[in-house]
Design a protein that fits this description.
- It is a single chain.
- The chain has 413 residues and is of the alpha+beta class.
- The chain folds into three domains: 6-78; 88-190, Pdz3 Domain; 200-267 and 302-348 and 383-410, Alpha-Beta Complex (2-enoyl-CoA Hydratase, Chain A, domain 1).
- It has 13 helices and 19 strands.
- The strands form four sheets. Strands 2, 3, 4, 5, 6, 7 and 8 form a seven-stranded antiparallel β-sheet that branches.
- β2 and β3 form a beta hairpin.
- It is globular and about 65 Å long.
């Protein structure tokens, strides 16, 4: 792995600072953050000799200050390959970090199981470990989202290395569990709602309520897959669309699916768009003489469309992971009254990220849109609140009971 030169490291930090400074539209959310001063603090740190991994960790800490999951760093593949998880999955619940999934092999050998609570990492209390080593480098718009993303990062390390995880069973028994970080995975055991993939999955319960799991909006194929799912379900009394593991994609595909769910046009999302003019800045005009001005836009109405349709009772099931284009999907359907939302508040971050290259084959990205719900309500940094809020308990996770889905099946739009 080639290490970067001093000039490359400084150029990368400067590129990140500049792209965010002039393209991020929501600095008003951070009145206490001096982006220029934070950049200056990091110049000497970036100039110092360091590994590629340490340099990208520095950049991650810089973007984390913006508190938006669309303002973040995508490290080079060589760095990502140096950071892998042991074969367990974690979930934040009531301020605790709970095991929700584990491979069969690991469960058999170590005794760790869904429902166990992480209490320490390499001998350090877990809250101290996350607060000191993980959370300051995580880009997230809400505290709940930061905890969720911290779960994905907190046990990572080199392939083949061992992390000593302190655990507590639901019965109160504590034990240490050394786990080997590995890219290899065997079959999983555990609570699956928050572990996604790419498929669109259609099922129906005994009460004739359909469920369509949409795990991503990242491909145009999701629209055809949704159409097929609706056809497969046929007649039903209601429909739950499960978005709990959906971290977004392209809002064009979400709009297309929305068209299958509405019988009349509904209002689209709203945007406050930032316009910057160097000439206006030179004339000391615009907002606080910055050369920037705002315009308010109402996105085009969403209209009925497509070869299939569902106009019956509709529920959207969300979690802290429901993010980006998924929020563009939830917002219009909730605000129009077409659907009720069950689950947890969404991630609170959506906005057309702009990508740019960084030295060493990494990339940065910056959110470029300031979005609001169709009714003008803020959700950036807050999440879209569900109509019915519910989350699992440790007992639910240990037993595999999906209480969020059960509640969604009970609700009618």
């Amino acid at each position: 792995m080639r290490e970067l030169t001093r000039s490359e490291r400084l150029m990368g930090l400067s590129t990140l600072w500049s792209e965010a400074k002039y393209n991020y539209p929501m600095w008003h959310r951070h009145p206490g953050l001096d982006w220029d001063a934070e950049y200056e603090k990091r110049l000497d740190q970036a100039a110092a000799d360091q590994s590629l991994g340490d340099y990208y960790r520095l950049l991650c800490g810089f973007t984390a200050l913006v508190q938006d999951s669309h303002v973040n760093i995508l490290p080079p593949q060589s760095v990502l390959e140096e950071n892998v998880n042991p074969p367990i999955g974690l979930y934040p619940l009531d301020g605790k970090y709970i095991v929700v999934a584990v491979t069969r092999q690991t469960k058999t050998r170590s005794g760790v199981a869904p429902g166990d609570q992480v209490i320490a990492v390499d001998g350090e209390p877990v809250d101290d470990f996350v607060g000191g080593h993980i959370a300051p480098y995580v880009s997230a718009a809400t505290e709940a989202s930061r905890k969720m993303l911290s779960c994905w990062q907190m046990l990572k390390g080199g392939d083949g290395s061992v992390v000593n995880v302190g655990l507590r069973h639901p019965d109160g028994r504590a034990f240490d569990c050394p786990l080997t970080r590995t890219k290899a995975r065997s079959a999983w055991v555990g609570y699956r709602p928050f572990f996604g993939g790419t498929e669109v999955i259609a099922t129906k319960n005994d009460s004739d309520i359909g469920r369509i799991v949409i795990q991503t909006f990242a491909s145009e194929s999701v629209v055809e897959a949704f159409d097929n799912a609706l056809r497969d379900l046929g007649r039903m009394k209601g429909l739950v669309i499960d978005l709990r593991a959906n971290q977004g994609g392209n809002s064009g595909w979400t709009d297309a699916i929305t068209g299958r769910l509405i019988a009349a046009p509904i209002p689209g999302m709203r945007e406050k768009r930032l316009h910057y003019s160097p000439a206006t800045r030179a004339w000391r005009q615009g907002e606080v003489a910055s050369g920037s001005e705002w315009s308010d836009l109402q996105m085009d109405p969403l209209k009925p469309d497509g070869p299939v349709a569902w106009h019956g009772p509709l529920v959207l099931l969300t979690s802290t992971l429901t993010h980006s284009a998924s929020e563009d999907f939830v917002g219009p359907l909730k605000c129009s009254g077409r659907a009720r939302v069950v689950g947890q508040p969404t991630a609170g971050s959506t906005g057309n990220p702009m990508y740019f290259p960084l030295p060493g084959e990494g990339r940065g990205r910056v959110c470029t849109r300031y979005m609001l719900l169709p009714n003008g309500e803020e959700f950036i940094g807050k999440g879209i609140a569900p109509d019915v809020q519910i989350q699992p308990t440790v007992e639910d996770i240990a037993s595999g009971r999906d209480v969020m889905l059960e509640r969604a099946f009970e609700v009618r739009s």
